[in-house]
Amino acid sequence: xxxxxxxxxxxxxxxxxxxxxxxxxxxxxxxxxxxxxxxxxxxxxxxxxxxxxxxxxxxxxxxxxxxxxxxxxxxxxxxxxxxxxxxxxxxxxxxxxxxxxxxxxxxxxxxxxxxxxxxxxxxxxxxxxxxxxxxxxxxxxxxxxxxxxxxxxxxxxxxxxxxxxxxxxxxxxxxxxxxxxxxxxxxxxxxxxxxxxxxxxxxxxxxxxxxxxxxxxxxxxxxxxxxxxxxxxxxxxxxxxxxxxxxxxxxxxxxxxxxxxxxxxxxxxxxxxxxxxxxxxxxxxxxxxxxxxxxxxxxxxxxxxxxxxxxxxxxxxxxxxxxxxxxxxxx
Length: 331
Description:
It comes from marine metagenome. The chain has a domain at 158-282. The chain has eight helices and no strands. The protein has helices at residues 2-64, 77-101, 107-110, 120-187, 189-195, 202-225, 235-250, 256-330.
């Protein structure tokens, strides 16, 4: 009887040990399963989440670059410089975010496919190229603004002399005309024989003189009132034409004071023409570079959007997989 009891106890002990062993194995499997789920959650919620956050920050900086459009509407060179420097800060931040998005820990995300069979890594590289072009464009804008500052300073220095020279020329025009008409009349047959085809009547001669003067005045007004506009685009051509036409009258100048008045005006005019045309050319360069910035930024926005769509989709999909895995484990 005692032997039977011992045998039963041994069997019970064996069952207990077996159950304990099975329990330990199951516990290990449970822990291992939760560790696997934990790793999945870590990849989906932390790695992708950080990547998404950096992508969102990149998008915010890209949105700030849209302010480049307003550069064309700012009438102050100094404010344009301030706005450009703000944009440069944004592209520098984008450059830093690109570096963060490119690190090795995101290699699985880098393999995700976006449009045109490109992967995320290719998209990041494309963003880098576009941003580099933005940096170059903004640096060009800064250079143009500095050149505009320099030209503007010189124009402001030269303009008072031009205004003064024109006023003297304008004030003297009637006296100049009277003097050269008198000299023409005194020349008599000599002048008539040389210019008979051009100056047949007194009225025609006077009309031609004042027409050329008005052409000069129109050029002067363009330089003073229409700086930076298309109205100055042809001033050099107009000046050359007027200067050649006025030679007919200049040859009749016999009073040095009138020659000096005219020469002072034309010398000042040519100096201002060169400066104003330089300014006009720089403003065209500025507008071109601003448009290039806008176009590059539009492309940058589209590329970021493509990346965002894929990353968001993959994040949602991965989150669903984690939930499904957890449910299967429970069952």
